[in-house]
Amino acid sequence: MTTPPPSLAVRGLSKSFGGVRALDSVDLTVPSGQIHALLGHNGAGKSTLIKCLGGAFPPDAGAIEVGGTVFGRLTPRESIAAGVAIIFQTLSVVDALTVAENIFLGQEWTRFGRIVRTAQEEVAAKLLDRVAATCSPRDRVGDLPMAQRQLVEIAKALSRSASVLVLDEPTAALSRAESDALAERVEDLRAQGLGIVYVTHLLSEVERLADAVTVLRDGRVTYHSTVTGRSRRELVEAIAGPGLPAAPRPRPAARLRSEAAGGITVDGLCGPGFGPVSLAVRAGERVGLYGLIGSGRTRMLETLFGGRPATGGSVRVGERVVTARRPAEALAAGIALVPADRRRQGLFPTLSARDNVLLPSIRSLARRGMRGLSAERRVFDESAGAVALRPSRPELPAGAFSGGNQQKLVLGRWVNEVHAAKVLLLDEPTQGVDVGARQEIYRVVSSLAADRGTAVLFASSDPEEVVELADRCLVIAGGRIVGELSDSALTQQALLSAVHDA
User: Is pLDDT above 60 for 209?
Assistant: First the structure.
């Protein structure tokens, strides 16, 4: 009996950029009906591999086999025709179009020069049913929640007879309930015979979904195994490499500064979707704000930063009363925000790393109307060093950096001589970031608090992150603070209980 070819097989794939080897003889096999987790640090080569599969990058060596057909390289059109569908973190759906229009975009059915909308909507309805989406073919995609948008993207892939589905951090922007629902859809697609490459940094998803796992480190496959019988510790060590130290957690009493040095005090703050909220973060303290999506934590941070109007309450930084009606006023008071969606709200992918870091500082560093390039380089080097940016190349476009280092670029704006934040607000600081880069960001944030006296208030829906990074934690639900945990009481179990009991 002849064994059917795998959905996807990558053999000896290599790719270099300017002498830097991003992929080094990578092998990966995904049989039909398997979920194969692809893990690794940011910068390990995952994105490069995905872009070779999608035809965005031509490999320097090796072969890609899809459904038994071997390719030395793929163009984007050839990749789609071969049956490869890639769902990136940044979805390619068009918000202004309907669900059916998105599914058939670029492959519209026409008759006598006119689109046959009724027939498209009938087929779209069947595809949506196949992925158990609850939206209608006539719904406008821009009105849908993120989870439904992802299902529309998957339905679009199925409309093109995809046999290989690559999901790149699919739950990064989803709530826990949405993530669970998506997991069920992925399991359904596995049962339908698709080969699925599942890129994630959440090991709980690997344990739940994956049949096999491959780990990349420095462009090479360093670990491959079935998931069954493997401990989480084994997977963490495979991703991070040996000897990864835990993020430091100094005792708060040794680090806290006086409130006048720049801590933040919030009294009865109200705004659309939250309030009243009262809290205080002392200089040198790291306070977590734990809550589920929709709890009001993001709205509160954006209001503190002047991005949303406050309807009541007061804010003080040190002894100064701050009324921030726009971000420029918050920055002038020493309050800075690193948003959750770095690509849409915090980063300019086509601009250089230097310009991204120095955007708030260029005018201050200018001389007689001209950019002060030597001063900019000095300040960039200071920021890059403070956040451990890799590579520390000022002219490299921000979009060329890994996800973790893109986050560091945004963080680097507020840690230099021009803009040294007294109060740093972080919304989901390691969203879409792998284990190794997550630890680096924790160390950067801890250093800012301990060495510079920065007051850090970070919002997170990840209880493990809160326990590791926070000196203490405020639990938020329904737009209000419903509990506080610290010291030995600050555990994942206690956080989950507090937020679900609220």
Answer: yes
Q: Which two tokens stand for residue 363?
A: 């005018």
**How are strands ordered across the β-sheet holding 274-281?**
274-281, 264-271, 312-317, 320-322
Q: What is the pLDDT of residue 253?
A: 44
- Tokens representing residue 72 in the block: 């030395």
Q: Is 180 left (phi over 0), alpha (psi -120 to 50) or beta?
A: alpha
pLDDT digits (tens, 9 = 90+) for 328-379: 999 999 999 999 877 777 889 999 999 999 988 888 888 888 988 889 999 9
Q: Are 407 and 353 in contact (CB under 8 A)?
A: no
Pull the structure tokens for residue 440. 């680096």
Two tokens, residue 423: 């109060």
Whole-number percent of the chain with pLDDT over 90: 57
Distance of CA 311 to the CA centre of its chain: 31
d(CA 396, CA 412): 15
Has residue 246 got a pLDDT over 50?
A: no
Query: Cα-flanking dihedrals φ and ψ of residue 124, to 5°?
Result: -60, -40
What is residue 42's predicted lDDT score, i.e. its pLDDT? 62
Residue pair 417/427 in contact (Cβ under 8 Å)? The answer is: no
Nearest to 261 by CA among 67, 39, 115, 449: 449
Number of H-type helices and E-type strands within the chain: 17, 22
Question: Where does the pLDDT of residue 146 fall: very low under 50, low under 70, confident under 90, or very high at 90 and above?
Answer: confident
Residue 397 is which amino acid? P
**Exposed / middle / buried, residue 495 (Cβ in 10 Å: 0-12, 13-18, 19+):** buried
From the list 123, 137, 131, the residue with the least C-alpha distance to 150 is: 131
- 187's tokens: 């399991």
